[in-house]
Amino acid sequence: MDMKHTLLEALGIEIVENTAERCVAVMPVDHRTVQPFGYLHGGASVALAETAASAGAQNLIDHTTQACVGLEINANHLKSVKEGTVKAIAEPVHIGRTTIVYHIHIYDEQERLICISRCTLAVIKK
Questions:
Q1: Which of 39, 53, 81, 95 is the most buried (most CB within 10 A)?
Q2: Domain CATH code at residue 19
């Protein structure tokens, strides 16, 4: 899949592990992902969470007839980050015929939990 000219490229998001059981994505905390006070922007964390869930869901669908799209996402931001890299670990908690739900935990470089998210994806026909 070509990531050129996408939000992933703009934010520096990389998928580092992607299986049916979990997807791990990383993102730098830099000028692209911080808010004006220098802290990681909550929206960037949500983009990372949805990216990890959406990428993971690709392992669970039939690509010839189905696609996954975001239906709902929420996030609780628990700790702030000013530098380094953050890592999202997305694991499916419900794999249904029309929806897939992921829990996503985002950690800083010291493995401190900084964000908890839940993302519901709709499984649609192509």
A1: 53
A2: 3.10.129.10
pTM score: 0.96
Range of the domain at 98: 7-125
Contacting residues for 72 by C-beta, under 8 A, at least 6 apart: 119, 120
- What's the rounded Cα separation, in Å, for the pair 10 and 7? 5
Q: What is the pLDDT of residues 50-100, one digit of tens each?
A: 999 999 999 999 999 999 999 999 999 999 999 999 999 999 999 999 999
Asked if 111 is an active-site residue, the reply is: no
* DSSP at 41: P
Is 61 part of a structural domain of the chain? yes
Q: Is 123 helix (H, G, I), strand (E, B) or coil?
A: strand
How far apart (Å, rounded) are the C-alpha atoms in residues 88 and 35? 19
Tokens found for residue 37 = 């006070």
The answer to the question of residue 77 being in a domain is yes
